[in-house]
UniProtKB/TrEMBL annotation:
Ranges of residues in domain ABC transporter: 10-242
GO cellular component entries: plasma membrane
UniProt GO MF annotations: ATP binding; ATP hydrolysis activity
Record keywords: ATP-binding, Cell inner membrane, Cell membrane, Membrane, Nucleotide-binding, Transport
This protein's name: Branched chain amino acid ABC transporter ATPase
This protein's record includes keyword Protein biosynthesis: no
InterPro entries assigned: AAA+_ATPase, ABC_AA/LPS_Transport, ABC_transporter-like_ATP-bd, BCA_ABC_TP_C, P-loop_NTPase
Domain of life assignment: Bacteria
Amino acid sequence: MQTSLTKPLLEARDIARRFGGLLAVSDLSFEIREREVLGLIGPNGAGKSTTFNLISGFIAPTRGTLAIDGENVTGASPERISKKGLVRTFQHGSLMKSMSVADNILIGTIGAVPRAERAERVRETARLLGLHGKLADIAGTLPHGLQRLVSIAIAFAARPRILCLDEPLTGLNQTEVAATLDVFERIRDEYGSSVLLVEHNMKAVMQVCDRIVVLHHGRMLATGTPQDIRRDPRVIEAYLGAEHAH
Ligand SMILES: Nc1ncnc2c1ncn2[C@@H]1O[C@H](COP(=O)(O)OP(=O)(O)OP(=O)(O)O)[C@@H](O)[C@H]1O
Ligand SMILES: [Mg+2]
């Protein structure tokens, strides 16, 4: 394994976040490596979205450090963190419902792509997400699953090195889930980017992730490959239940 020689893309060291009397995240250390789909899972209230907000700069850690590409970004703004190559989607409202799909994706290219190359970037991104037949459609008129793909397209139009997605599969049907997982693999394999996936759909997580971090009460309960995680007695007890252990 060359992992000890490879600098992680993102490195969180002993991060913690307190909300009043509640320690939502504590003593948490993990990394996002190049070209991987990393799953962040755990029961409701485990601290997944808080971790997501911490690494994307939307909230600052109470303690600990964050580095991207070896550069300290602890307490940095979302803008600076996105310039370092980490981009996130929002669960609601990252899409302009009254605008076309093409214009939505175009928004994601601003600041990342020279003007002359934006139209081609929009087309290529739409192809990647299977939205090429929908470019002229008004985003708000599309089915829920396609709107979700448009949100991912906006985020990936900038070609971030780390794409962070909070529960992107919620409300999608099986066909849409399969198509979205295929997109994650293409983002990794064809573009060399990494995906951080916060998700409750365990079948999908086990299928698509290279590694998984399990949170419980704000702390890391376990980390490893899907195979390791599926069999870990602590994870089964705290989160998965016995039916996932097979
Ligand atoms: N802004 C906030 N102010 C106060 N408490 C918060 C805030 N954000 C999160 N919390 C609390 O921190 C804990 C962790 O919440 P978080 O949203 O990170 O969990 P989660 O793992 O994303 O859960 P879910 O699976 O339900 O989305 C919870 O107890 C939550 O109530
Ligand atoms: Mg959450």
